[in-house]
Amino acid sequence: MLDTASNRPDLPAEIARRRTFAIISHPDAGKTTLTEKFLLYGGAIQMAGQVRAKGEARRTRSDFMQMEKDRGISVSASAMSFDFGTFRFNLVDTPGHSDFSEDTYRTLTAVDAAVMVIDGAKGVESQTQKLFEVCRLRDLPILTFCNKMDRESRDTFDIIDEIQENLAIDVTPASWPIGVGRGFIGCYDMLHDRLELMDRADRNKVAQSIEINGLDDPKLDEHVPANLVAQLREEVAMARELLPALDRQSVLEGHMTPIWFGSAINSFGVKELMTGIAEFGPEPQVQKATPREIAPEETRVTGFVFKVQANMDPRHRDRVAFVRLASGHFKRGMKLTHVRSKKPMTVTAPVLFLASDRELAEEAWAGDIIGIPNHGQLRIGDTLTEGEDLRVTGIPSFAPELLQQARAGDPMKAKHLEKALMQFAEEGAAKVFKPAFGSGFIVGVVGALQFEVLASRIEQEYGLPVRFENSQFTSARWVNGPKAAVDKFTEANKQHIARDNDGDVVYLTRMQWDIDRVERDYPDVTLTSTKEMM
Ligand code: GDP
């Protein structure tokens, strides 16, 4: 097994062994199955099938929505920690549906790498492409897993070409599939010269691994049928000639992705992928912040909130803030400073998301994700430090693309609705705008499905029926500029002005023309479609 300190011997060992990553994929490519197998190899559970069952049990308990189950989509991201050999993996789950792109984006700010899962028969699908673009914005290293090789799949060179062309990234094969569909017998491990043979009889069995001394080794002929072995030799020789060789630096910079072929459901290729994650990592990275960057090895603890989830337990109106530790060695009971409010905060009951269940975290290190239960003090984008005035940057809030007016089913309950909406706004599930003129609230989302999710959660978690109705507005922009200019602008455009749940001024627009007009008539005022959360 790989040495945990091999890449950064200067890091404290506990930090060097951490790998924090997310899986991105198009729905149905096999993300859930792969996650189960990760946990299986991570020794976190006995049988891979349990994750799904457990996931469902947890969902009912924490009242995750019925809708999530019905539609088979995962609405909220969660985190899981498990060990692989001497490594500690932190897997942060991303919601797969395109309507939750903002949540996904923020989740990706909390990881150091992404595993991209594609279906061997389908190649790069739309959602994969979108998520990939988000990773690229952050230059995240990407490791690719081409799944479902046990079924009819595309030609290996075609798959690689498609990724190179559609995603404009160099692809280097880490393994090479032998045979296709029913004739698929396993892979040649191009990084370690090993033959990995799949066991179709037992889906949870680790593949048989045979050490090979290069492609000419006669051992290859003993284990691979004659028709396939000739093809394998030819293809691997061609791949080595035509495709770029693996360059770790290039992988770390996000310019190259190694690809493994396998079948998650047959537990095949998963271990090799995990070894790849351990090997190429990367270890916890430097975090962008102002006025200075944060290095993971700094002894003082810093962390930032990238996700807030409310009502995980219906009996308590608690929220859990998901915090990525950016530096240091955190211990339970530590007193940290909540930088935005400058208030101290003693973290007495941090939660570590061990795959088996939520568990109290006695300690955690840079790279880890901990959950901090709180009553609303912690918001997305908040930074926690041991006193220093540091703010993590790069966690955006996007202007909504759809706006609707929220109305309480029972007019007497308008105040309750306001509270519920604010809570969801703080969770990042929607934007809530209070118009300067008129009553009620305007709710903004990125995708239409989010309105359904919201309505259903407000009803389930607060017992409030709510209607979303068309609003005359279609989008919103944050208003920036010198105070006098902003004041003058808001005074003259009251019908368009609202405040978001942080109290920041927004301009509600009906069409692009509105924005053009402001730019023309108010040169001192700038309208932005993203806001930095800090
Ligand atoms: P997700 O939507 O990306 O989380 O995908 P799932 O893990 O739920 O998988 C989607 C479907 O593909 C399920 O029916 C899985 O059983 C199936 N599946 C996953 N991995 C494989 C595989 O390696 N081979 C085959 N044949 N089916 C697979």
UniProtKB/TrEMBL annotation:
Presence of keyword Transport: no
Listed PANTHER family: PEPTIDE CHAIN RELEASE FACTOR RF3 (PTHR43556:SF2)
PROSITE patterns named among the record's database cross-references: G_TR_1, G_TR_2
Family: Belongs to the TRAFAC class translation factor GTPase superfamily. Classic translation factor GTPase family. PrfC subfamily.
UniProt subcellular location: Cytoplasm
Gene3D superfamilies per UniProt: P-loop containing nucleotide triphosphate hydrolases, Peptide chain release factor 3, domain III, Translation factors
One GO cellular component term: cytosol
Highest taxon of the lineage: Bacteria
Binding-site residues for GTP, renumbered to this chain: 25-32, 93-97, 147-150
Record key words, sorted: Cytoplasm, GTP-binding, Nucleotide-binding, Protein biosynthesis
Major localisation: cytoplasm
GO terms, molecular function: GTP binding; GTPase activity; guanosine tetraphosphate binding; translation release factor activity, codon nonspecific; translation release factor activity, codon specific
Protein name stated in the entry: Peptide chain release factor 3
CDD domains for the chain: RF3, RF3_III
InterPro entries: EF-G-like_DII, EFG_III/V, G_TR_CS, P-loop_NTPase, PrfC, RF3_C, RF3_dom_3_sf, RF3_GTP-bd
Function according to Swiss-Prot or TrEMBL: Increases the formation of ribosomal termination complexes and stimulates activities of RF-1 and RF-2. It binds guanine nucleotides and has strong preference for UGA stop codons. It may interact directly with the ribosome. The stimulation of RF-1 and RF-2 is significantly reduced by GTP and GDP, but not by GMP.
Domain (Tr-type G): residue spans on this chain: 16-285
HAMAP family on file: Rel_fac_3
Any one GO BP annotation for this protein: regulation of translational termination
